[in-house]
Amino acid sequence: MTDTLLQVEGLTTELGAAAQPLRVVDGLDLHLQAGETLALLGESGCGKSMTALSLMRLLPPSGRILAGSVRLGGTDLLRLTETEMRAVRGGRLAMIFQEPQTSLNPVLTVGAQIAEAVRVHAGCSRAQVPERVVELLRAVGIPDPAQRAGEYPHQLSGGMKQRVMIAMALAGDPQILIADEPTTALDVTIQAQVLRLLKDLQRDTGLAVLLITHDLGVVAETADRLAVMYAGQIVETATVAGFFARPAHPYSRRLMESLPSADRRSGRLAVIPGRVPPLDRVFQGCRFADRCQSVMPVCREETPGWFEIGAGQGVRCHLWADSLQSVVGSWQSAASGASEGESDRHPAAGNGILLRATDLKVHFPIHRGILRRVVGQVRAVDGVSLDLRAGRTLALVGESGCGKTTAGKGILQLVQPTGGSIRYRDRELIGLGHRRMRTIRKDLQIIFQDPYAAMNPRMLVGDIVGEGLQALGIEPRRAGRMRRVAELLELVGLDPASANRYPHEFSGGQRQRICIARALAVEPRIIICDEPTSALDVSVQAQILNLLKDLQERLGLAYLFISHNISVVAYLAHEVAVMYLGRVVEQGPVDVVLDDPRHPYTRALLSAVPVIDADRRREIIRLEGDMPSPSHPPPGCHFHPRCPVAIDACARSYPGETRLNDARVVHCLRANQE
Amino acid sequence: MPLMPVVLWTDALVFLLIALGLLFGLYAARHEHLRAPWRRVVQSRVGVAMLVVLSAYGMVGLLDTVHVRLKLDTPADSSAAPQYAPEILSLLDLALSGLRERQEKTYSAPFATHLFVKEAIEQPDGSVIRDFPRLEHGGSHLADPATQRGADILFTAMLGMLKGLVFWVLTAFAILWLIARRRGELMEQTWTAIRAGRTPIPWLTALSMLGLLLILGFVAGELAARYHILGTDKVGEDVFFQTLKSIRTGLLIGTLTTLVMLPAAILLGIAAGYFRGWVDDVIQYLYTTLNAIPGVLLIAAAILMLQVYMSNHAEDFTSLVERADLRLLFLCLILGVTSWTGLCRLLRGEALKLREVDYVQAASALGVGHATIIGRHILPNVMHIVLITLVLDFSGLVLAEAVLSYVNIGVDPTMNSWGNMINSARLELARDPVVWWSLTAAFVFMFTLVLAANLFADVVRDAFDPRLRGI
Description:
The complex is a heterodimer.
Chain A: E1 4-15, E2 22-33, E3 37-41, H1 48-56, E4 64-72, E5 75-76, H2 82-88, E6 93-96, H3 100-103, H4 110-121, H5 128-139, H6 145-148, H7 158-170, E7 176-180, H8 188-205, E8 208-213, H9 216-222, E9 225-230, E10 233-239, H10 240-245, H11 250-257, H12 297-301, E11 307-308, E12 314-315, H13 325-338, E13 353-368, E14 373-389, E15 393-397, H14 404-411, E16 419-424, E17 427-428, H15 434-441, E18 444-447, H16 461-471, H17 478-491, H18 508-521, E19 526-530, H19 538-555, E20 558-563, H20 566-572, E21 575-580, E22 583-589, H21 590-595, H22 600-608, E23 658-661, E24 664-666
Parallel strand pairs in A: 3-8, 3-9, 6-7, 7-8, 15-20, 15-21, 18-19, 19-20
Antiparallel strand pairs in A: 1-2, 1-4, 4-5, 9-10, 10-12, 11-12, 13-14, 13-16, 16-17, 21-22, 22-24, 23-24
Helix pairs in contact in A: 4-5, 4-7, 5-7, 7-8, 8-22, 16-17, 16-18, 17-18, 18-19
Chain B: E1 3-6, H1 9-30, H2 32-42, H3 45-63, E2 67-71, E3 84-90, H4 91-95, H5 97-101, E4 119-122, E5 128-131, H6 145-183, H7 187-195, H8 203-224, H9 239-275, H10 277-292, H11 295-312, H12 320-354, H13 358-365, H14 370-406, H15 418-430, H16 437-464
Antiparallel strand pairs in B: 1-2, 2-3, 4-5
Helix pairs in contact in B: 2-16, 3-8, 3-9, 3-16, 6-7, 6-8, 9-10, 9-12, 9-14, 9-16, 10-12, 11-12, 12-14, 13-14, 14-15, 14-16, 15-16
Membrane topology (chain B): Multi-pass membrane protein
Transmembrane segments (chain B): 6-29, 41-63, 153-180, 201-220, 251-275, 287-308, 328-347, 385-407, 434-457
GO biological process, one term (chain B): protein transport
């Protein structure tokens, strides 16, 4: 506690009209020391970002800080005038945002934008500015910084843009950097680069970082201490090591248990029922009481106080009151038992191949000029072969832009494939017209990533779910359809009365359930799940994954699970196919591929995934640069320009498939050499 | 039968429009999710107030849309077929026959008792002097206008106000009784609930607006019986009467044009965006070509062609009113043809965006046909754009009518319209002293209509936007 840089006490922030305010931050205390990373962890709607904006005094117009103090060094930031505060912002306290795409002005070069920050804060002479810009760009690891400074944001990739944002934040030599979900919008390999960069900067400059995130893996890998936020309050603070060894608050425990991973394959994930309560009311008792498993009568009546439980760990929970300490022990042992066990998985329900895609190609022509001649092809999917079996899940893994979503849509004929074949139970799907395809539509369904965009906002839930029944003539009469819809809603765990409501009245998780009900309505045999949980919070993700798993067991569905989240894949999938630039580079049973990856890209991808368990961490294989454009793939093996183990032969031709055993296929020349 | 109903072309289309509106109303009433947004409209203060204003305009327009021919007084010989007057009159004409028939010689200012221009007046003694002559009708009941006029106007206005108040109280009482009966409570309880604003519909606002309109209407009615409250025009016609007659023209141009252009704009716009490919190319070429031709040229050509046709087939058009009506219809048609491209382009862009949206993809994955996807997913989600464009166009079209009248290719010069009034104001404003009342009257009435329509449309749009709900 010698070198406390930032000390926040009793910070309380409200949003909205004075009559019915949302108390988004309520009595928040935290402190941050030089050179330290403090992670602020929580689900969406817990007030993490509002805390950051309160510290910067950048609240939206309807927001106001009611009480508390924010001491940076010796000054209370809340007492500064706006002019003085402007010197602090970017000077001593800098911030980077989640979406690098929208945080940069598209019509100015990145150099000009960094120069602006330099001029405001660094106080160096005009001539020195360009020099300092290049220096900053070099500091954030951008190759060839002098040239990059003259480029526009659209010429840079997502990871590069986030680096530029960091460079801008560093322009004023800040003491504290507030990073609001800095890597959420980025792919894992890029995320690993950015997190490494933050760590390096911290080591070199003694920067303190307040990292706001919802990702426990990121916290485990980068933070020193963490604070868990729930409904506007901090419910637990701890050192990272202490937290992951022994989370104290029931919420933290459930959050950890709801994380999918390979170990939990055989069981169900723990779920936190319900959702974060709306913050527009006065709370009585503990805010988590309604969702807590170990709720006691006292929780609903008395607001829990703050208990220090040693080793820098503190918690806001009645369980830790002295009189109740004994309960904690028993509860902990009981809870750990609950997540284990349950039924073993069914052995694969029949090994018959339902759908086989062979050499599937989806190319998009690039038109140029006044006559719109085709000058090239974007090879989004370039020869993908997959088999889907009943009752099994095949995961399609890869970074954004590798063509996994397009492959899924190509199989469903939502995008017209350019070549290859898709055989569904001895029928060729490619070339079937719109009309003849309709008879097969019933068997192939899709669930989308964004549950907010996947439903027509002007239709009732009942009509949305019943749309397929009507379109395919399964239940032409409305009464019968509504009966079936009620059954389906019950099946996915929703109140059948939801049928008469509009989608916007539901939370993200509930909407995803409705989407699943819509897909199930026509009794499909194959469902393509296009990142169905990536827009959801961890606890809600667990609910959806459990549901998908249950449905597979009960109905024998085949899933094509498209995802970039390796831990979800490890939990749910039976087989996995890794895609890179439109092609599958490695394919095989999930445990084998994830434990013993053979393709260098798979290895790099897996090594970049943040892991909670420190023992299981692998050495991160840093990939240079970004994925090339699918319109001009590199000659030979698509991966060879970034591959750490490439040999000359890799540049010559695309490596054919190497069968390691029955189910295992790798496209790499060096697959057998190690 | 003392009357023979006459249905002009535009009347028929108006009736069609009303029928469509009623059908939609019945359909929406049975579907809760369609009824809910409209309920939100009438729960908004602005919405209710503007609804009252718009219905007042609508009533006048509708009265002016029912056309008849009067039976002529024939000799008592009952065996002869009844003879009807060649003149086609609307119910509004009949209701305001006093105003219509009380013509002066030429200009007179509002509430004037004397003409606006000097004339040679022959005195009883035979001498001739140049002075402002007394009006034939305006204030003719006054013996000494100079002293009596002010008091008379005040008294008449008060009388009108009193009548309006009485009528308003009666109407309000009837409405109150109806509400109380539906809510199953005593009228006092209902009244206190309304006063305290505890009813879902802001009745207080609605009744106040209604009261304002009724009092204004009755005051105007009383005064108009004795004076020309908005003056007279060049040929001595009452300007107040002209303005009221112009309401129908304005409403028709605003609504019929959109009725004409909507099917083309919506169908072609969505088809272009949804189907892409050659359909898109054809439609795009069509509207870029059409857009490249100046709209005024097309309108002029069409109207001139119609004029030639009408003069060549004079025998087909029995009355002036029929000719003017056909010209109005043609104007609506040609305005529709030239104005659909803007909306079409907007809808094409929106459809391009929507066809890639997940819920449309999900629908095609469920095997939903193209027509159903367009009808169920795309059309409802572009309706707010249609609505906004319609309202913006409504005011634009009312103004366009004025511009077209300026170059003499607007509505028939014999037809009452704000455009014609504004057009004639060109010369009136050049006079000295200025004749300002025609322009002012047209402006006030047009402004009220356009403002009410815009405010109402804002409320409707907010009510229909699901994203704004719950805020």
